[in-house]
Amino acid sequence: MKFTRLAALALTLLLAVSASAQSVEFSKDRFGNDKEGLKAAQKAIKTGDEWYFADPPKYERALPYYLEAQKFNPNNAQLNLKIGDCYLNSGFRPRSLTYLQKAFELDEQVDPRMHYLLGRGLHLNARWQEAIAEYKKATPPAGAKNALAQQQEIRKHITECESGLALMKKPTRVFIDNVGPGVNSPFPDYGPVISADESVILFTSRRDNSTGGQTDPESGGFFEDIYQATRNGKEWGPAKALADPVNTEGHDATVGLAPDGQRMLIYVENNGGDLNECDLRGNKWSKPQTLGKRVNTNAHESSASYSPDGRMLYYVSDQPEGGLGSRDIYKIELEGKGKAVNLGPVINTPYGEEGVFMHPDGKTMYFSSEGHNSMGGYDIFKSVYENGKWSKPENLGWPINTPDDDVFFVISASGRHGYYSSYRDDGQGSKDIYQITFLGPEKPPVLSNEDQLLASRVAPVKETVLAAAVPVATTQVTILKGVVTDAESKQPLEATIDVVDNQKSQTIASFRSNSQSGRYLVSLPSGINYGIVVRQEGYLFHSENFDLPAGAAYSEVVKDVALKKLNVGVKVVLNNIFFDTDKSTLRKESTAELERLVALLNETPKLRIEISGHTDNVGNPAYNQKLSENRARVVVDYLITKGIDKGRLTFAGYGLTQPVASNTTKEGRQQNRRTEFKVLEK
Amino acid sequence: MKTTFTVTAALMLAGVLARPVQAQVDTVRATTLPPAQLAEKLYNSGIAKFNQKSYRAAIQDFDRALATRPDFSKAFYNRAATRYELKEYDQAVQDYDQAIKLEPESFTAYFGRGQARQALSQADAAEQDYTKATELKADYAPAWYYRGDLRFEKGNFKEALADFSAAVKADPAYAYAYHDRGSAQRQLGNYAAAVQDYDQALKLQPELLPALLNRASAKRRAGDLKGALADFSAYLNKVTDNPVAFNNRGSARFDAGDYKGAVADFSQAITLNAGYAFAYNNRAAAHLKLEEYKKAADDASQAIRLNAQYAEAYLNRGHAREMLRDADGACQDWRKAAELGLENGSAYANAACD
């Protein structure tokens, strides 16, 4: 164990000068008003001191007396120092810090090793950096007495603190649970071993009902006995002490159990510490037998573990021969004759190794070591034997390992649970057995996300494209309507209305005006030069022209037509005879009208007519006269070419002399520009 | 000419019946327009009404145009488009069918039918129509784009990528096509290329905010958490009511280890949409990281209440329950997650459960 060398400290304490201004002495000066209390406290200190200064010191036995005195006077530097020191050498070592700090606060000079002790207290409370600082202050100068050894020790502790700092940053995810009152008691319970399936647990306990009922004069506690409990659902227990012949009046401690729970390894104090084994026969354990001299030397053999096939034994011994320093782990073939083999420097260090446990997989070994990257005292490590060698031991990490001793660890075959013992504040009062549940690496939470990855879905756009509008002529139409009458009687007249496409010289439609009303209506879509001919037998035809270019807007034209009978002197305007501008050249569009005239002349053989040309008043009168005459002659010439006797035809050019409308308007001038014929004879 | 007969007949009929003169004239006028021109007039009127969003009235005009001129393919086409607007997709498809029959080379008719079929969830048929439209007019970008979307939705990201590329080739200013190509790149794991395409979409159309959001997600997946968070925040500065965006920024914060910030975002997503199971699940995850296991379990439970088949929420609740020392509950949840398809669930259950 650590810190057994307290002789120097004890001497220091004896010589210490208790003259701190803040430290309160146990004296009549201070407590004269409570002489009884003072007396009792002094007596407690005296009794405590007897244990404290014993050889070897009995810290745990001194502690209750010191704590009693502390209640009376909590402000004595030396008493606080002693309590701190007792705790440092007891089970609940982290508790030392409060008292050590108090001692230092009351008197910084209370002990020359104060910084070292504070470093220990802080270290055991995992206050790594503060501990390092105190350790550094405690480092003795070179040349001081025992400087080298102290420096080495302090350097080791600083390294441990650095390991602790690193390991604590990545804690091992575990639950550490007290296995409960079915197993643990107010007395020390420790050294658990389990069957591979965790159905059976055997452990060591120092209870007041131990076999023989005696206490160990060395430690003051009851002698060790082995207890067994089975799992009842999720709970263990209740534990029962193994009967004779396993438990004896002396120390009987379990250290190993075969995976099937049928063989047990026991530690006994014979011969400096030896290993025995016994078998479970039925429900009764056999009398433990020594493992023999191949295993048990004069040195200290302590923990041990079977290989899963039961042929090999892994065990711990501090035998100097073949050792690498302090306690080492060895293996030996139980049924063979060979010597035990040190597992070598990958596993064993110059520091102590303890608590070996071989997993039922036969290759994973758990053990404790003060070396490697321990964070203080013994830490539990894991190494795997593969390809003929052991892997680098892996510290099981915080919080399984602590700055204190973590040792005698076993694990279930499933790897889900480990068991070890520890002094913890949530215990039953002393050292207790705890179950470690391994949670494995952190289980990453899973997030759910969604994205709207298609733009057309998250922000739809209108893709509808209409076919474009089409040009429509339907609104571009001229409605021609009116009443057809007899020019003389003024009576409505039923007549034929021919709609002629002058361009094509084709009649495209023929209508009849109403016989009673004489009304007619013709729809003339734009884009055509229309000739409208109103005709009735016995009457001269009447011609109108509607040249409606494409795009001409809708209009309605009322045109009443008075048909004239074929009488001498009657004049008919030939509205559908067209000439090129300022010329006397007949245009093609005139054909239909001319043919109509030819037909009239052919139908009425005695008919003689005069074709006359007329102009408006624009321009030179002589020119106009000549133009009109030429145009009249061209018409006559056309008729002659169509077989009409030239004797039936005359022509004349009247220029502007016979207007039919006012020349002051555009429409009037248009009416005046005309070709007409007059009946000369019939 | 048909006009002749119609008008003549009308006049004659009027004469026989000796109807009053005025009525007679009116009748004549109404029937004198040539049918082709009448159809076109109605067709144009339909377009005008469509443009005024008077879709029903537009339909009536197209109906009448088609009654007058049954081979008027454009009228079928436009009536189809109008019916699409009215969400009468089946009838729209019928009209497009007629338009295609009359004018088999009309790529717009194929495209339009593709849209209508897509609206009817007939993805394969729609894809065929878009394909035909691209064959008839290879530089018509929307046909490539929409086919790309359909292929994307089928999980054919490589084909979709090719279509979006064709779309941007046909129309280099097609922001949507760049955006969706970015998404295809993302799905293919090409995050850098995705970010580039989203960049281009935003350059072309800065108000296309989904590109900002998706660029953020692509950056997050590429491990550029800083860039992702900047994009998310830029988006959320402009759009404050989108729970998806808060959920996603929360996830980026989670990835960056800002679990409290993540909780705040997930909470905002929940405020905006109390039925948002993802946000509850994710907040559970953040609580797990903060070692607030009770809150984590509660949030995961709420996510499960909202979606009883939510595997991830079971998994996360399993984690929370494990830490709450409810080993049986954790095992149940992990196993349920496995049952719902999360393999990790089995692994966790096998490792920790009896």
Tell me what the structure shows:
The complex is a heterodimer of chains A (682) and B (354). Chain A is α+β, with helices and mostly antiparallel strands and 682 residues long. Chain A folds into 4 domains: 7-169, Tetratricopeptide repeat domain (Serine Threonine Protein Phosphatase 5, Tetratricopeptide repeat, Alpha Horseshoe); 175-183 and 254-438, Neuraminidase (6 Propeller), CATH 2.120.10.30; 473-565, Immunoglobulin-like (Sandwich), CATH 2.60.40.2190; 567-682, 60s Ribosomal Protein L30, Chain: A. Chain A has 13 helices and 35 strands. In chain A, the strands form 8 sheets. In chain A, strands 2, 3, 4, 5 and 6 form a 5-stranded antiparallel β-sheet that branches. In chain A, strands 7, 8, 9, 10 and 11 form a 5-stranded antiparallel β-sheet that branches. In chain A, strands 16, 17, 18, 19 and 20 form a 5-stranded antiparallel β-sheet that branches. The model of chain A is unreliable at 1-20 (pLDDT under 50). In chain B, 80% of the residues lie in helices and 0% in strands. Chain B contains 21 helices and no strands. Among the domains of chain B are: 1-32; 285-354, Serine Threonine Protein Phosphatase 5, Tetratricopeptide repeat (Alpha Horseshoe). At the A-B interface, helix 10, strand 24, strand 26 and strand 27 of A face helix 1, helix 2, helix 3, helix 5 and helix 7 of B.
Largest interface: A-B, 51 and 83 residues
Instruction: Give the CATH level 1 class of the domain at 285-354 in chain B.
Output: Mainly Alpha
Overall geometry of chain B comes to: elongated
| Uncertain spans of chain A | 1-20
